[in-house]
C-alpha cells in the first residue's frame, strides 16, 4: 500500500551482508520477498515489545477487581516480564528497561513465593477435569470453520493499530481504534482455522536456502498426530509482504 520507506543495503555488497547481516537478509527474503544485495527493503514501524498485560502488584501477584477492591490478589497466580503489567513504563518504555523490569520483578516474585510457601509444601490435588474448559476452548478454535481466515483478522487488527494507535496518536484516534478493535474481536466468532500447528522446529545446521520437505516441517503435538510439511518460517497466507525489522 506504499505505506513504507526503503532501506538500502546494496552498497555494502553481498559478502558483508551475508557475514554481518544474515538475519536481516533472511527476514527480508521471507517476509518481503526481496534480495537485499540487489533490492531495497520496504520498512514500516512495528511493535517489538508489548506494554500492558496481566495486571500485577509489585510482588508479581496477579490482581483482579473483586468485591469493590481493585487490588484483590488472585491466590497462587503470578506473572512477570512482558506478560505482566506493573505499570512502570508509562507511555514510552526506555531502551533496555524491559530487562530491568524482568530482573527486578522476577526477583520480587521469587521473594514473595518464599514468604507465602513453606518448604516442602505439596500442590493441592487437582480435579481430573480441571483442564477440560481450557482444552474445550482450544478444540473450538482448532476446529473453527467460520468464514474469516486468521490472516484476515490479524491484518484488520494490524491496520487498525497502525492507523489509530501509531507513533503519533490522539484521544480521538485511540477511541476510534478501540471501537474498531472491539468489532474485530467480535469477528473471532466467525474465524476459520484450516492449518492448526502445535510446534515448529528451526534447523540451524541447514543452509538458508533449504526448502526440502525432509528438513522443513511443522510438527503436530498430541492433538494432531500426522506431520504437516511446509517451508520453515513461512509467512502466513494473506499477509502483506513488508519486512518487520526490530531496531530496539
Describe it for me?
With 248 residues, the protein is of the alpha/beta class. Among the domains are: 5-43, Alpha-Beta Complex (Flavocytochrome C3, Chain A, domain 1); 145-192, Fumarate reductase/succinate dehydrogenase flavoprotein-like, C-terminal domain (Methane Monooxygenase Hydroxylase, Chain G, domain 1). It contains 6 helices and 10 strands. It has helices spanning 14-20, 22-32, 97-116, 132-142, 150-164, 171-186; strands spanning 5-7, 41-43, 54-55, 61-63, 73-78, 84-85, 148-149, 191-192, 217-218, 228-229. The strands form 5 sheets. A two-stranded antiparallel sheet has the order 1-2. Helix 5 runs antiparallel to helix 6 (171-186). The longest helix has 20 residues, at 97-116. The radius of gyration is 22 Å and the shape is extended. The model is unreliable at 209-235 and 243-248 (pLDDT under 50).
